[in-house]
Amino acid sequence: MIDPMTVLAVLAMAGVTYLTRIGGYVMLKNRALGQRATAVMEAAPGCVLISVIAPDFVSRNPANLAALAITLLAATRLPMLPTVVIGVTSAGVLKWLMG
Amino acid sequence: MSVSEIALAKGQTTNGRGDEFRRGLAASVPVLLGIVPYALVLGAQAARKGLGVAEVPLMTGLNFAGGSEFAAIQLWTSPPHILLIAAITLLVNSRHFLMGAALAPFIKHLPRRQVFPALFLMCDESWAVGLADAQRRAAAGLRPAFSLPFYLGAALPFYLAWVAFTTCGAALGPVLGDVETYGFAMAFPAVFLVLLRGMWKGFAAARPWLVSLIVAALAHLAVPGAWYVAAGALSGLAAAWFLAGAR
User: Fold this and answer.
1) What is the reported pTM?
2) Do B127 and B207 lie in a common domain?
3) How far apart (Å, rounded) are the C-alpha atoms in residues B184 and B143?
4) Which ipTM did the prediction report?
5) Taking 80 as the threshold, does the pLDDT of residue A42 lie above it?
6) Nearest by CB to B108, which of A29, A45, A57?
7) Which residue range is the domain that position B28 belongs to?
8) How confident is the model at residue B34 (pLDDT cuts 50, 70, 90)?
9) B65: alpha, beta or left, given left = phi > 0 and alpha = psi -120 to 50?
10) Which residue among B118, B131, B139, B156 is least crowded, i.e. fewest CB within 10 A of its CB?
11) What is the overall mean pLDDT for chain B?
12) What's the total number of domains in chain B?
């Protein structure tokens, strides 16, 4: 079953996302950004990513915090796939051990 | 010779379109191996939030931007808060502006009827593979530097796999049960932490991220709902603005 509100939300997401995809090409192809605007644009992706996962850093579950520490360590030295495997495994095992 | 002159210069490509497409397919293989688990996890989490097996491919096929889909599903309510979801999607995908701008010099010789569909398929992976290939070809003196069939060969399998495996995840989600108990929720921070490492340019450049992390964490503890993302991201951007002025 397809819910109309879900379709609306998905269409809103799709429209916004497509605008971000063509926006850089359409607006910036013949223009140079100023120094401050460039600094803001360079910091933006990281600021967004870290904000989305910020709740994991203040989790009330000790097993989650320990698993996050292990995942963070793995992320500094391993490629994507092993990091995800280590993160998921450590979270699963620690939750099982620590309840 | 500037990048745009290289892209504009007429010349021979070494391979035919079919060969270029196949070269792109080969480049997409390692990426495909990496995304299948996330696609399954996203589909399963979407199913937990009440999205059906038809609704998941609708989202992943029309939106096709994994980070924003994870964020949207995290914040999904019934009925969904459309403005919040659109705003978070914009924030998470704002990096596309930078990616498109970096690609612009390589693709502006192409007709718009090719550029606009090609940009629909631009995600972190296809962008990185396509841009790196264009830079390599430019350095090797190949014209045009940006190979559209190569890019499509790298991007299309990724698109099809993303839609197919998120749908599988939605179908399997109820069988898997509560994915949280298996630790799959940690896949999301793991992906983002590796992406952040890829963006790392030293501690000074990362100071706005630290501001974002602290503000978002405090906002999450203080305010119910998903506004912590907007609070964290915007305070990080403000920090970047002020730090750039102080330099």
Assistant:
1) 0.69
2) no
3) 45
4) 0.83
5) no
6) A29
7) 3-199
8) low
9) beta
10) B139
11) 85
12) 2
Sequence-distant (6+) residues with CB within 8 A of A46 are B196, B199, B206, B208, B209, B212, B236
Give yes or no: residues B64 and B134 share one domain.
yes
- Whether residue B52 and residue A1 make contact (CB cut-off 8 A), yes or no, is yes
- pLDDT-derived band at B180, boundaries 50, 70, 90: low
Distance from the A34 Cα atom to the nearest Cα atom in chain B, whole angstroms: 11
Task: Report in angstroms the alpha-carbon separations of B202 from A35, A43, B208, B221, B230.
Answer: 18, 12, 12, 29, 24
Query: Is the pLDDT assigned to residue B144 strictly greater than 60?
Result: yes
| Closest CA of chain B from A91, distance in Å | 5
Which token pair is B178? 């509560």
Say whether A43 and B187 touch across the interface (CB within 8 A): no
Q: Do B52 and A80 touch (CB under 8 A)?
A: no
> Which of B79, B119, B190 minimises the CB distance to A84?
B190
A 80-99 → B contacts, CB under 8 A:
80-81, 83-84, 86-95
B120 and B222 fall within a common domain: no
Q: Residue B181's pLDDT is what? A: 63
Residues B109 and B54 in one domain: yes
Instruction: Find which of B2, B70, B182, B194 to mutate to test the A interface (most A CBs within 10 Å of its CB).
Output: B194
Report the length, in residues, of chain B: 247
Taking all residues of chain A, what is their mean pLDDT, rounded to a whole number?
88
Residue A54 and residue B98: Cβ atoms within 8 Å? Answer: no
- Looking at CA atoms only, how far is residue A28 from chain B in angstroms? 6
Residue with tokens 């559209």, as numbered in its chain? B148
| pLDDT tens-digit series, residues B80-122 | 999 989 988 998 788 788 788 878 888 988 999 999 999 999 9
Is the Cβ–Cβ distance between A17 and B91 less than 8 Å?
no
User: Is residue B128 domain-shared with residue B182, that is, in the same domain?
Assistant: yes
Residues B134 and B189 reside in one and the same domain: yes
CA distance B166 to B108: 33
Q: Express each pLDDT in B198-228 by its tens digit.
A: 778 899 999 999 999 999 999 999 987 667 8
